[in-house]
Amino acid sequence: MMQFSDWDILRNLLLAARWTLLLSLIAFTGGGLVGLCLTLARSLRNPLISGFIKAYVELFQGTPLLMQLFLAFFGLSLIGIDVDPWTAAGLSLTLFSSAFLHEIWRGCIDALPKGQWEACRTLGLSYLQTMRYVILPQALRIAIAPTVGFSVQIVKGTALASIIGFVELTKAGTMLNNATFQPFKVFAMVAALYFIICYPLSLFAKHLENKTHVTR
Amino acid sequence: MKFLRKLVQTVTLSVAMLLSLGAQADLLEDIQQRGTLKVAVPQDFPPFGSVGPDMQLLGYDVDMAKYLAESMGVKLELVPVTSANRIPYLQTRKVDLVISSMGKNPEREKAIDFTDAYAPFFLGVFGSADEQVSNAPELSGKTVGVTRGAVEDIELSKIVPADATLKRYEDNNATLSAYLSGQVSLIATGNLVVAEIADRYPDRAPGAKFMLKNSPCYVGLMKGEQALMDEVNRLIAKAKADGTLNQLSETWFNAPLPDLDA
Hints:
By secondary structure, chain A is mostly helical. Chain A has helices at residues 6-42, 47-62, 65-78, 85-110, 114-122, 127-157, 169-180, 183-215.
């Protein structure tokens, strides 16, 4: 039997946590950018564009992330497009989180009274001006809590990327457990590391909420 | 209906791909040309494949992959897989071989091809060295410990003579404890369980007496790669003959290699 010291376990988990962080970052920036574009496009209220976005959101919210990863990695290979794990993970995490972030942000914009839009029109503000000076600053404040809530979900969701060969935090935990047979120790460390990643996000959200509150 | 058109395109493309697969150049040549053998191995199933303190893969399957790559004179690229994704990896040609403690069954045989057996995986009756038993009738008058309701219990119950006693324990650990504490000198269990005892209590390790059910592991490869199949089979046969596999079995299972084709 191989001897693992506690430091061996922790060290390997920390190394694996890099991939969890990196995958989360990709998911959040990619998903954020695409989600933002979708949200802006949808606020144009063009029925064709809105219909397309609605279908997009339904598709990616309604199917499990695990299947999306599987299809992106193995499915595309099967039809002859060779994708490496990073592309597949980046692609499906972006698609998945953009659908959710878009839905969150659209809700935040819709939550503003219709009168705000109408008032802007009577003042003669253009679409961009309305967005920039009236709608977004107010929507942003409501958006912070659900956005951070979802980004914490993303961090934990990256564990699914192990199906396409990523050895991230959860996978490393299972591998180490199967080599050391100390499930309590290993998984307690895994949970602690997830907490260390997620807790600052929540703190950051609180900080942002306070900050935007003052400027109002 | 952009989506529908895309779907139709995709389906036609994949059918075309599937048809062209049969006509592709042979994989063995590809491997030799690119100079690397890509092998899917388990990462969380000791002793077949798990990780060491430095997260390096090690185990029976990993050593088997090393042996194959070495004998073919190419570099080895290990791809850690789970039982959920090992066949997709093979079918999408992301790996050349799956050496992942995989047993053969008719469903799998429809999807991929199997070489000859390379690793032992069996249920049997094991016991201390002073027990002289080599088949079921010789159990007459003896006591065998077994885990209640396990496959080995069912198999053994079918063939055991009437005057043998089966002592049934509630779980694997209880069966093991009964053996280790000397309550029974014979137990029916799997060779992996025995390998674990041998690991922890080298001097009390039970030896194999006879086999109850044999389901050895095979190397999996893409359908229709006859040249690669022949090459791997040749190397497996060679490893059996020159003791390489026996050495692996001694290292990882703490037991000599049994007859895989029994």
